[in-house]
Amino acid sequence: xxxxxxxxxxxxxxxxxxxxxxxxxxxxxxxxxxxxxxxxxxxxxxxxxxxxxxxxxxxxxxxxxxxxxxxxxxxxxxxxxxxxxxxxxxxxxxxxxxxxxxxxxxxxxxxxxxxxxxxxxxxxxxxxxxxxxxxxxxxxxxxxxxxxxxxxxxxxxxxxxxxxxxxxxxxxxxxxxxxxxxxxxxxxxxxxxxxxxxxxxxxxxxxxxxxxxxxxxxxxxxxxxxxxxxxxxxxxxxxxxxxxxxxxxxxxxxxxxxxxxxxxxxxxxxxxxxxxxxxxxxxxxxxxxxxxxxxxxxxxxxxxxxxxxxxxx
Amino acid sequence: xxxxxxxxxxxxxxxxxxxxxxxxxxxxxxxxxxxxxxxxxxxxxxxxxxxxxxxxxxxxxxxxxxxxxxxxxxxxxxxxxxxxxxxxxxxxxxxxxxxxxxxxxxxxxxxxxxxxxxxxxxxxxxxxxxxxxxxxxxxxxxxxxxxxxxxxxxxxxxxxxxxxxxxxxxxxxxxxxxxxxxxxxxxxxxxxxxxxxxxxxxxxxxxxxxxxxxxxxxxxxxxxxxxxxxxxxxxxxxxxxxxxxxxxxxxxxxxxxxxxxxxxxxxxxxxxxxxxxxxxxxxxxxxxxxxxxxxxxxxxxxxxxxxxxxxxxxxxxxxxxxxxxxxxxxxxxxxxxxxxxxxxxxxxxxxxxxxxxxxxxxxxxxxxxxxxxxxxxxxxxxxxxxxxxxxxxxxxxxxxxxxxxxxxxxxxxxxxxxxxxxxxxxxxxxxxxxxxxxxxxxxxxxxxxxxxxxxxxxxxxxxxxxxxxxxxxxxxxxxxxxxxxxxxxxxxxxxxxxxxxxxxxxxxxxxxxxxxxxxxxxxxxxxxxxxxxxxxxxxxxxxxxxxxxxxxxxxxxxxxxxxxxxxxxxxxxxxxxxxxxxxxxxxxxxxx
Lengths: 313, 592
What we know:
The structure holds two protein chains of two kinds.
Chain A: H1 2-28, H2 31-39, H3 45-55, H4 61-73, H5 87-123, H6 125-140, H7 143-157, H8 173-207, H9 210-217, H10 222-260, H11 265-275, H12 278-306
Helix pairs in contact in A: 1-12, 2-3, 5-6, 5-8, 5-10, 5-12, 6-8, 7-8, 7-10, 8-10, 10-11, 10-12, 11-12
Chain B: H1 8-14, H2 20-26, H3 28-45, H4 47-50, H5 83-118, H6 121-135, H7 139-145, H8 147-150, H9 154-181, H10 184-191, H11 196-233, H12 243-252, H13 258-287, E1 300-301, E2 316-328, E3 334-346, E4 350-354, H14 361-369, E5 377-385, E6 388-389, H15 395-401, E7 406-409, H16 423-435, H17 439-452, H18 458-463, H19 471-483, E8 489-493, H20 501-518, E9 521-526, H21 529-535, E10 538-543, E11 546-552, H22 553-558, H23 563-591
């Protein structure tokens, strides 16, 4: 098991290197624009050249990349080109905001989807149609619109929840819960729509399999067949979709953060990107790749545990 | 799934199959959504004819103009621009976004899907790796990160987004190609000397078209949604009208002028909703309606009146009277697959239910066990076990009978074991459910059973997962599971068909020994008269859902009445003698 994890981890590191290298290379085309943006419109070619040299943009791209990489290996992610804020802590604090929203949303999504998907797959009839309609609704209506409607109704009209802003958990847990409630609901609606359909589909497939019939003929209870046997076999495919959903949620959080003015990862990425803050963008890229790599590794490990054929320990 | 379960197929095939396009035309969901999209797209194309203003033309008089102002039918926004004009231009922006995103995804996904699926492993490994790499990255974030490069222009953003969407298409195409590649017609085409390229273009693309069209609808919706999301965030030039930008403007002005927010939201909602709903309709048309939930329930019994019950003697264990099972055809009428079957089985005896695939014998067996698929309808008849009517019993009541009174050995050993649990776990659960004993005792019983059914190393098999044991061993495990609670009636559905010839005879011997040992009655469902000859007292021959002949095994072998029986005997006896000579011999020498 340890060699497997090490191997997967190595592959993850390689992926991170590759993605950051590609990103850096692509960004290098805009170095000139970044310099001009910093200097403003009234500038001289000399000033541009001087600034380019100060930022080190005049060196070959690969040299710059490895320079950056060397810093990363020493734990130094550089400083923002615009605010001189150290990138590492800056990204980490924003990531904490986003992750707290996304993880809570993910847990609720799983609970709702499994419950709804299993009930829809086994009961059929009205419950199934309701579940499918709800799932379709979440799929069909853009998250942006759901977010705005919820803000208008709950925050502005009913004044039940704060419309915008964020209070960290360790400052005030109940305020934290209040600030993330609407963002979480928005993410859950979209996420649950997708995962419920997935759970329903795989459960229906599983319940039609031969082994289910054979278990029934041995007098095993429906409850055990559905919740123990079929659900266990359906969990693998659902988990893979869930890991994609997590990545989608990370992206979706971007728009949510903007609507709710959350000081999260997405807003940070957006603002830095708008300014062309190369070091911050690189830090964000690296953090998100590592995040994705860890999630995928985690899913593989859980899948290995769920599926005896893929078991590696 | 056994062959018999597919008997509904002929009924479906009997009706001429409609082409997917025709089905689409008859599906209101498809017609409505497609027409909506078409109308919206035409409005977008006709924009220059419909508007009097330029998209960015602003007038001080028009700032927040109410609806119905002259020249501003939907009013003006906070910049004094005509809302209708900007809406119509936004249609074009979103349609172009959808087109660019979808076509890039399709071009890349289809090309590499064809290449990756058709050519050898090495190439496939490489494409696979690249696409899973693309798939693992959060797309919106990447688009944001690359903003310095795209300068926020929605067309270049959509180009990149198309690349990010391509893995989905790649997977669809590759999977289909791998499937199609192995099908005969591609081989035939190869033999006839067609070039690879023509094979791909002709055959594969035709098969793949359905899933691709479906995916395209979803991709289009997703690209349009993403573009408006980015525009809402403020990515891109504000001179390009877009729903997202309009929604952002309207959001700021929500209280004073709610319609400024409402119009773009509604239009965007209608477009993305239509795309998704159209995608769903396309899927139904191309791939058939998706599976319905498995409703675990008592078998639906129409017209519960049973025919005059024949007096059943005390020795009769199982009695099936006038049993009819039907399935609903797509057109809604009931089509009978079992048409009034009568069977009688005395305690401790063996009845062979013989017939070809599709004759309804497995359906009859499932009906006795109460495990017919949810679509099945028992239209008439009666099944009694020890004089107790089984039809109409609840799942709970049936559960008490299963395992203890009736047990089942399936045809396909591998698919009938739950792949996620060890052999021991599955057997223990069955024993505990039907006999209700402590876990430790159940484990001992299972180990003893495994030994009894001829497994050399019971502890090892006990700990194994289904994929770690052979088919013959799996069948022994299933037999152990079936006889674990000493049932009175054992239903064996083609218990040897899926096994190697050498194993077949051993399994039959095991069944015969167990039957004598436990004094079980056995209902043996088979197409193989050889198997019947081996262990059956009586035979019922089934054809097209009806029993055409029944009687003592010896009598029927000696003088079959019905031509179908004679036909089965002639054809199958030859096969049997050929197949069983060797194993019988080895068995005799090894056994003694």
